[in-house]
């Protein structure tokens, strides 16, 4: 049986600016604009913000100052113009239940347990269980039992539905019922799209010490990716260590 202990976050998509059309807009309105970031999302956020007051022009603030000002003024709607795509894997179904509670500014496509065979699924073991041999053995026994039951149920139900002519439907009918036995620990994969404002809110709520350990790990991973990817939008966050050795996220500008 495969056991997973670390979430994996892949940043698979980012925005590209159409510089020609930006120039066409500026010239149509007799404006000029230069900025000092190569990051598409940061350029777009600045452009979006500057449209509000037609505040384009040379010799203005740097992009970092411009976005820092938006954040300190809590002008968060402008951050919604910056969007990224991620694949999050090595995470449990308990994690995904919590993730999909984040609605505003998010899009999700998650591995279907109705279509995908889970006979060989991996399971995500919480650190606190993995670190305690007795707890680990209990967890292992429960997960192995559930996986064996799943495989057996798929066999029984496949037999029951053997006369259903469509092979895909036949499998779906068996798997969708058999999955009821799978634990929250079952690994899932989820494709996620989120804008900068939504990501900031997620990082704050789920990077806090009150959040579950697994989602906190993901929030911290996403924060570190975003601080490399778009440092001007995520500059205000700092990571602090709790007495138990785990990390939390802090900012002076919550819920922008
Ligand atoms: C530590 C912790 C413990 C939790 N425990 C539980 C629990 O026991 N049970 C449980 O059910 N959930 C629990 N949650 C989930 C929590 O209640 C939220 O569903 C989740 O954190 C998403 O937050 P959100 O609604 O602010 O985010 P989003 O859905 O991303 O919304 C972002 C913001 O947009 C605005 N917004 C979004 N939708 C609406 C709307 N329909 N109307 C008006 N404004 C809207 C709000 O300002 C909101 O804060 C917990 C969360 C945390 C962090």
Tell me about this structure:
This protein is an alpha+beta fold and 256 residues long. Among the domains are: 15-80, no CATH class; 128-184, no CATH class. The chain is 46% helix and 16% strand. The strands form 3 sheets. The chain has a 4-stranded antiparallel β-sheet with strand order 2-3-6-4. Helix 2 crosses helix 3 (63-72) and helix 8 (196-206) runs antiparallel to helix 9. The longest helix is centred in the middle third of the chain and has 28 residues, at 133-160. The radius of gyration is 23 Å and the shape is elongated. It starts with a strand and ends in a 6-residue tail after the last strand. The model has no long low-confidence stretch (mean pLDDT 97). The site of flavin-adenine dinucleotide (FAD) has 10 residues, from helix 8.
List the SSEs and their pairings.
Elements: E1 3-4, E2 8-13, H1 19-28, H2 40-53, H3 63-72, E3 83-92, H4 93-99, E4 106-110, E5 123-124, H5 127-130, H6 133-160, H7 167-178, E6 187-195, H8 196-206, H9 213-229, H10 231-234, E7 238-241, E8 247-250
Parallel strand pairs: 1-5
Antiparallel strand pairs: 2-3, 3-6, 4-6, 7-8
The structure holds flavin-adenine dinucleotide.
The site of flavin-adenine dinucleotide (FAD) has 10 residues, from helix 8.
Characteristics:
binds flavin-adenine dinucleotide; single chain; 256 residues; elongated; alpha+beta; four-stranded antiparallel sheet
What is the gist of this entry?
The protein has 256 residues and is an alpha+beta fold. It is built from 10 helices and 8 strands. It is elongated, with a radius of gyration of 23 Å.
């Amino acid at each position: 049986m495969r056991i997973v202990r670390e979430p994996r976050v892949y940043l698979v998509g980012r925005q590209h600016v159409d510089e020609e059309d930006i120039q066409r807009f500026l010239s149509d309105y007799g404006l000029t604009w230069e900025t000092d970031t190569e990051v598409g999302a940061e350029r777009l956020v600045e452009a979006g913000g500057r449209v509000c007051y037609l505040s384009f022009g040379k010799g203005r603030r740097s992009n970092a100052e411009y976005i820092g000002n938006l954040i300190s003024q809590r002008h968060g709607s402008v951050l919604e113009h910056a969007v990224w795509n991620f694949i999050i894997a090595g995470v449990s179904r308990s994690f995904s239940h919590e993730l999909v509670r984040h609605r505003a500014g998010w899009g999700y496509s998650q591995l279907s347990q109705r279509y995908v065979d889970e006979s060989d699924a991996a399971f995500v073991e919480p650190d606190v269980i993995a670190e305690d041999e007795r707890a680990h053995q209990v967890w292992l026994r429960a997960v192995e039992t559930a996986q064996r039951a799943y495989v057996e149920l798929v066999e029984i139900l496949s037999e029951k539905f053997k006369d259903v002519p469509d092979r895909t439907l036949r499998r779906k009918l068996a798997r969708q019922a058999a999955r009821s036995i799978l634990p929250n620990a079952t690994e899932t994969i989820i494709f996620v799209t989120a804008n900068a404002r939504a990501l900031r809110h997620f990082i704050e709520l789920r990077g806090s010490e009150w959040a579950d350990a697994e989602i906190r790990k993901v929030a911290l991973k996403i924060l570190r990716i975003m601080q490399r990817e778009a440092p001007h939008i995520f500059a205000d966050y700092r990571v602090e260590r709790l007495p138990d050795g785990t990390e939390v996220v802090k900012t002076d500008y919550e819920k922008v």
